[in-house]
Amino acid sequence: MAPDLRAMADGLDLRAGDLERGLALIDEIPEAVLLAGDLALRDWVTSTHPELVTTSRADIVGCAGAIAWLIASTAIPAAKILKIKRLIEGLGGVAKAVQLFWGASFKWEKIQALGGAAAALGAELLGIAAVQQKCFS
To answer: CA of 132: how far to CAs of 39, 51, 66, 123, in Å?
Structure first.
């Protein structure tokens, strides 16, 4: 592979790994917690990932950090996280979702062209400014 193509592929691989960690965190949240609402989500995050609660927005690094901070800060309502979780499941899981976004070079126009659950998941994630900035180009 030519050096420029290798560098581009390596960059996409790094972005894919970062997105995968963020989506895996969403996927880890039990559906029962999300159905119970925002307070249940806050309690789950506090008991399961206390390190996220102490992270400030200024400390977030990369896509996974942006997603983790939003979950911990309850900036995203539990209902929206549940919708994102179900879209991930509809795509066949975290790895499949990330693979689709990788194939679209993490560009919104290409993700939108995929249609279906991939475009819906992209739209949900892109509707969150911090995630858009850290996860997509």
So the answer is: 25, 23, 9, 10
